[in-house]
Design a protein that fits this description.
Elements (H helix, E strand, L loop, with lengths): L7 E9 L3 E8 L4 E8 L5 H15 L9 E6 L5 E6 L6 H4 L6 H20 L2 E2 L8 E3 L5 E3 L6 E2 L21 H4 L7 H16 L9 H10 L13 H8 L10 H12 L6 E2 L5 H8 L6 E2 L50 H19 L11 H11 L4 H23 L3 H14 L4 H24 L11 H11 L4 H23 L3 H14 L4 H7 L4 H14 L4
Antiparallel strand pairs: 1-2, 2-3, 3-5, 4-5, 6-9, 7-8, 10-11
Length: 553
């Protein structure tokens, strides 16, 4: 379809969303490229209001990290459009698969954080922070765009879950998912999810459907960064805490934390000996002082989180009968021998002891700052490739595998998935955990299939029926015995339904059931035989004669 906008020459489509399309166009008066966002259709006045609202909001903002708007108008056929600056650097979505350098991630986070602070001070909540809405200038400057779902803070900032939900399910905050009143901390949460994805290349919460993903934001434990990224864990935690009260209070506070984090790491060093007399005179003691410089000021660190909910606690109410956790020996050899101060060695010994205690108490990855994984990560920061720390992290993954296997044996698939999620956060390539995850998914699908069969949801509704669940199992295990038997059971159920309809001379309904059964299992002999009986002229007389004879048989 040809698009005509006076003063602009449309060149080609750039992107397309649910209701709007973005085109590259030449603004003829100034001979410059612009992006034209065109509302393709709107089914209710609210969609048009949101579209025009985006133009007004952007026009009210003047910040180097907010996209510039040039014009708002209407096409010849009555469709509204917004003309805005064209950014040649693409979006963040395209950069994440190529692995984002942590320093670049923090730089962009600081830029968008400053931008959000400015936007929030204007009383505006963005509500749809995601990689696709962060664009780049040619010089690498990060730009925030797409304010189509933004709201004035004093207006009703609720989320509706009736099919017009705002925000992407992968980046939605728990309070937004629960349709609660929103404030600026919802944007901080979404930006924290973006940061996690930049650092790891993976989305922290990703279910089998949009609904499962949204529920995961509300109920799944906080993600743990993989080895080598531990220094960013506190930042992640303070951005994506489940409760807004546990997050940064503002984007400005978050930016200050990021700025401290970006400062060069100060390494541990020992104070050299001063003349004994001077030390004794000044301090009244002899000896040396060891100075330790933390990377991040502790003023931003809250105490270890109290009151962890039962669903997030590491220690099970009754730990399963699993083998005793193999604790790495403090004296485990290291594969490399880097230059190390005696203070480092002493600190490593302390951390190994704390990690061992945490393992025994099943404090594997929670509570924050007081768990075995954190202690081992701190050791690796002091001594990369430390064999004892690496062995300890392997032990944590093994324990999560044992806990998950125990829950699977109890058919508690939800608990098993929680343990596997935590274990795979630590070791994404762990073969045992991946196999258990597959087993957990199969168990959950079998349970859903059984429920669907009980409720007679054989092949309908779409994506919520027994046949769908058995097919999903066969994708994971192509020759899974129970799934194959289940599909045969569905075919038999359709045969029973068809036979019942034939007995009542309802040939139309019988044909419908036979079609559905043969779509599930085309070679089913019983269905094929029944299909021969669906011709009413040939079948009805004989069936009627049998009914008449039966009382006298």
């Amino acid at each position: 379809m040809k698009i005509t906008i006076p003063g602009y020459k449309i060149e080609h489509l750039i992107a397309e969303g649910g209701t709007a399309s973005v085109y590259l166009a030449m603004q003829e008066s100034l001979q410059r490229h612009v992006a034209i966002k065109l509302l393709r259709k709107f089914e209710n006045p609210e969609q048009l209001t949101r579209f025009l609202n985006e133009g007004r909001i952007i026009a009210s903002l003047n910040h180097r990290n907010v996209i510039n708007i040039h014009d708002i108008g209407v096409t010849d056929n009555g469709r509204p459009y917004i003309s805005m600056e064209y950014l040649e650097g693409g979006d963040l979505d395209a950069r994440i698969p190529k692995k984002v350098d942590p320093e670049d991630a923090l730089q962009w986070l600081e830029a968008i954080g400053n931008c959000l602070d400015f936007v929030h001070q204007k009383g505006i909540i963005h509500r749809d922070i995601k990689p696709g809405n962060i664009l780049f200038h040619k010089d690498g400057t990060a730009i925030l765009t797409d304010f189509g779902t933004a709201k004035q803070q004093e207006s009703d900032a609720r989320l509706t879950m009736d099919g017009r939900a705002f925000g992407s399910p992968y980046y939605i905050s728990p309070e937004q998912a629960a349709s609660k009143n929103l404030d600026r901390r919802t944007d901080i949460y979404s930006l924290g999810i973006v940061l996690y994805e930049m650092l790891t290349g993976n989305k922290p919460y990703k279910g089998d459907s949009h609904i499962e993903t949204i529920v995961a934001h509300m109920s799944d434990p906080l993600p743990v960064l993989p080895p080598g990224l531990h220094r960013y864990q506190t930042l992640i935690r303070k951005m994506i805490a489940k409760s807004p009260d546990d997050r940064f209070t503002s984007a400005a506070e978050m930016v200050r934390f990021v700025q401290q984090l970006r400062k060069p790491v100060k390494k541990t060093r020992r104070m050299t000996w001063a003349p004994a007399g001077a030390v004794a005179a000044a301090l009244g003691i002899g000896g040396a002082l060891l100075l330790w410089q933390p990377v991040i000021p502790e003023s931003n660190e809250p105490p270890a989180t109290p009151g962890i909910s039962t669903s997030e606690a590491e220690t099970p109410e009754s730990p399963p009968d699993i083998a005793e956790i193999p604790l790495p020996e403090p004296g485990d050899p290291v594969s490399e021998t880097p230059v190390s101060t005696s203070s480092n060695e002493q600190r490593i010994e302390e951390l190994l002891s704390q990690a061992a205690a945490a393992l025994k108490e099943y404090r594997l990855t929670t509570p924050v700052d007081n768990n075995a994984y954190d202690y081992y990560q701190q050791i690796l920061e002091l001594h990369p490739q430390h064999a004892g720390a690496i062995k300890g992290i392997n032990s944590i993954a093994d324990v999560y595998g044992d806990l998950a296997e125990s829950k699977l044996n109890q058919y508690n698939y939800a608990a098993a998935r929680r343990h596997l999620h935590r274990g795979l956060d630590i070791q994404p390539e762990n073969h045992r955990l991946l196999e258990l995850q597959k087993k957990s998914n199969i168990g959950r699908l079998l349970s859903q299939a059984d429920m669907a069969l009980k409720e007679n949801r054989l092949t309908m509704p779409k994506n919520n029926n027994a046949y769908y669940y058995y097919q999903r199992i066969l994708e994971l295990r192509p020759k899974h015995k129970q799934a194959l038997e289940g599909i045969t059971g569905i075919a038999d159920a359709y045969a029973d339904l068809a036979e019942s309809r034939l007995d009542h001379f309802n040939y139309v309904a019988a044909k419908k059931y036979l079609r559905r059964g043969l779509a599930v299992q085309p070679e089913n002999a019983r269905l094929q035989e029944l299909q021969k009986n669906t011709n009413a002229f040939r079948d009805a007389p004989g069936r009627l004669w049998k009914k008449l004879k039966s009382p006298f048989s």
